[in-house]
Amino acid sequence: MLMANQSISKKLIYSDLDFIDYQEAWDLQKIIFENRHNNNINDIILLLEHPHTYTLGKVADKKNLLFNDEQLIENKISVYEIDRGGDITYHGPGQIVGYPIINLKDWKEDTHEYLRSLEQVIINVCNEYGLSTQRKANYTGVWIEDRKIAAIGIKISRWITMHGFAFNINTNLDYFNGIIPCGIKDKDVTSLEKELNEKISINDVKEKLVNQFYNVFGYSALEIISKEKILNNFLIHST
User: Which residues are catalytic?
Assistant: First the structure.
């Protein structure tokens, strides 16, 4: 198991899981969550892409899922009812999903500040691409005017975080037509590719996200761990 290093006060582990099934990643989050709660590991952030998936949060209105069963099958979209906050959203190729599993007792025991800081990470990355983004009153996420470029939905239990953000990079935005994203009817969605009118390197954005997360949350050391090692240590050894 990947043990916490008590000699380093604020160490962050980062793993790029590349492309991974939603259920597999959710199972992995739960296992890492328990390990973080038991202080077996340091804070960790996972960055990845999912196959086409709709997820409904705890308070989601199922009427916001517009596709019927036949359309879901035709478009090869999986649907999960999950334990995060927020309504319905889409995950898919070309979108970077971030799952920070961190202990807020080592940072700030403040859910609102955590949400705002996740938004700040993405705002800073967008700024690196020359895009002016902002927050919107009464909504979470990151916006370019009335277009949402990143959604945020989290779970915090015992001050340990799960779930996180979905940042549209080269995302096929047509898949948002099957839902009312986050239950918001009068707003649009966008992506880095759409705003910049060019394909964007997913790996470059991941690097920027990790750097910004590291700085915004005030870490002093970074350890990069491969997908294979993460899965071997947590998923395989837990079965």
Answer: 182
